[in-house]
C-alpha cells in the first residue's frame, strides 16, 4: 500500500511538473515592440520590415510596433500583450523586477569618439550618456548647470535621466533641486534640438545623439557640444516576457542574431538603434544599473 501511495504521489508530481511545463508560453503570433529613442513614427517605419524577416526565421506571424514610452512597454509585457521588447537597460531592470521579464540578448554598437561623435570601428557592449550644451551658453562646468533648464527623457531612461542625474548627484549637484528645472521630451533627437534651438540650457542624451539631427541641423556639431560624459552603460536588450518557453527564448535569440548578420537585417537594426549585432546576455550584466537606480532614489530626499 505504501509503495502504491508512493507511485501515485510520484505520478502526481510528474503530471504536475509536466502540466507546469506545458503552461509555459509558446507564441502563435509574435508581438515585438520598440521604445521611441527618436521620432516614434520614423522608428516604426524603419522597424516594420523586421516582421517579414522574423516570420521567415520563426515560421509564425510577427507584429512590430512602437510604444509611447518606456513604462508602457514594461506594462504591456507584464500584461502579456507584448512578447518581445527592445528595452534599454533601466527599463529591462524594471520589467524583470515587476514581471520576471528575461533578457536574452544585448546589443553591440560602434563606440563614439568625442567631441564630434565620430564613429569608431570598435564594437562594444556598452554606451555612454552625455550632457550637451550650446557652445555659446557660457556653461563651462557641471557647477554651471545649477539654476538652469535641462531637457531629459523618461525617468526610466538610463542615458536620458538615470546615469547623468546620478553622476551629477555624486558630485554634489541634485537635478531635482539646486534651482534646476527639468523638461521631459520624447526622444533623444528632441533633447538635442531643444539645446540647439535655445529652448533649454542643456540636455541628457546618449552619446552620438547629435547625429540624429545632423541632416536637418547641419551645424549642430559646432553649436551643440558635450559638457560631460558618463561611465559606460550596458547596451540595449532584447527581452522576452517572463513566461516565455525556454525553447522559444533560444529560437528568438537565434533569429535576431541571424537577421543582424544579413544585409537587410543589419540595415534595419543599424538605422533604428545603431545596433551592429547581438550577443547572449544574462541578468547579472545589469547589476550596475541597479546600483545607479538605488542612488537615483536619493534625488528626491
Automatic annotation (TrEMBL):
Q: Please name the SUPFAM superfamilies in this protein's record.
A: Periplasmic binding protein-like II (SSF53850)
What Gene Ontology biological process does one annotation of this record name? transmembrane transport
Which Pfam families does this one have? Phosphonate-bd (PF12974)
Keyword Signal present in the record's keywords: the answer is: yes
GO cellular component terms listed in the entry, alphabetical order? ATP-binding cassette (ABC) transporter complex
Q: Where is the signal peptide?
A: none
The record's annotation in Gene3D superfamilies points to: Periplasmic binding protein-like II (3.40.190.10)
Entry keyword set: Signal
Taxonomy, superkingdom: Bacteria
Q: Give the UniProt family note.
A: Belongs to the phosphate/phosphite/phosphonate binding protein family.
User: Could you tell me which NCBIfam families the record lists for this protein?
Assistant: 3A0109s03R
Q: What is this protein called?
A: Phosphate phosphonate ABC transporter periplasmic protein
Organism annotation: Lapidilactobacillus dextrinicus DSM 20335
